[in-house]
Amino acid sequence: MERTTSLFYLIAGIWAVFSFSVVKADDPYRLYTWTVTYGTIAPLGVPQQVILINGQFPGPRLDCVTNDNIVLNLINKLDEPFLLTWNGIKQRKNSWQDGVLGTNCPIPPNSNYTYNFQPKDQIGSYTYFPSTAMHRAAGGFGALNVYSRPRIPIPYPTPAGDFTLLIGDWYKTNHKTLQRSLDSGNALPFPDGLLINGQAQSTFLADKGKQYVFRISNVGLSSSFSFRIQGHQMKVVEVEGSHVLQNMYDSIDVHVGQSLTVLVTLDQVSKDYYMVASTLFTNQVLTATAVLHYSDSHSPVDGSVPAAPIEQYQWSMQQARTFRWNLTANAARPNPQGSFHYGQIPTSQTIVLANSAPLINGKQRYAVNRVSYINPDTPLKLADYFNIPGIFSLNSIQTTPSDGSAYLATAVMPTNLHNFIEIVFQNDEYTMQSWHVDGYDFWVVGFGSGKWSPASRGSYNLVDALTRHTTQVYPKSWTAILMSLDNQGMWNIRSAMWARQYLGQQFYLRVWNPIQSLANEYFIPSNALLCGKAAPPRF
Question: Residue 19, Cβ neighbours under 10 Å: how many?
């Protein structure tokens, strides 16, 4: 039986390579088989059940090059359905591979699904993580790094090495217990600690006088953090696929779901130095440390751990404004980023999205424009493709906030392919927010305090705002983005703070053109899992 099962998975992986819907013959293939299991480790000193991928926590680092064909056979050995999503990968014309419950049926236990996608015209530091239930609280996350093609220059010297830092808050409580607590109407408690690459302590070895890349991602559930390296400055060079102006920083704020890349030159006395992450805007500050070890060092770290910067929201907002596009640098393509004059394009629609934390039926929920999202049994993408009625309605969420009670619904907002839209994230709560858009990056053109109004557009950066896939929204504040709807599909807009997403702070954007064409969107994959009302009849 074991031999038969292994042969089946091998054939499934090979067969997926030839799937017409995604791959391109002139781009290289990278073939992977990942097995998802439970395991027991003690990242905070207490043994607990975590999710492993190929026995690793965090999961394997997935390194690829722009336009590579990723063919990844994912085998689910958990006791629950499971999906991975590829955070920041646009899935051009291919929301079939997005790996969220609105586009994909989850992989049943003891079954598999072969993802087949490209990081089309993308470079940068990204992550993957589980999108089902509260699995993200148990692990299953990892780094996804997209490197430039050899003929495309990068705007900095080739570094001597490349390090990944996956940093996030962590709970000792089992993910199923956390989920049951959320289902019972409770809010997520304060986390127990911070981890760097799944550990409380780790060491990075490097040579004096050389320059290194550090790819920093916030893979936590709820906490922003500040990152710093004792005695060293960091030069930010890339943020979620955008090459940015190369400013120097002593500390950098990274919010939930965000990634960025810094260059660090080892130009200090040969010894060991603290690398520190600490939570921001929390009454209790959680701290995790690692060690930057000069290869010729004979001195351990000394002194106390560098204290967290005393930051207020306005200081953090000012730092966010300094992350700006490098207009003369290219990204994945040879043409400069500044050749696209986004600020000169008229917008066809303004959408204002207000988050809230209502009680519905006596239980804690989270909502967008009063709608708290619930997942249907049939993925929205399948319902749309097969014209299955009764799964969702296109008038289920308003494009601006309104007064009234919050309610449960499967929220889908209709938009048209090739529109250029303005989205305002309005945060009237006293808590930090982090918003992510699948299938796209967007220009973050403005941050401001209080209520957004049309007059707020006077403060927009319409020249060199960076593009990214996840943006923060400060308490009692707003963030404005511009987005070109050039990617047809069903795309999740969600809180990156996972308990808020799980309890309803999300919806789907249907980007649509009635003319069905491969120029706009790929056909359904022939290996697509079918479930709910899209499942084939049983005889």
Answer: 18
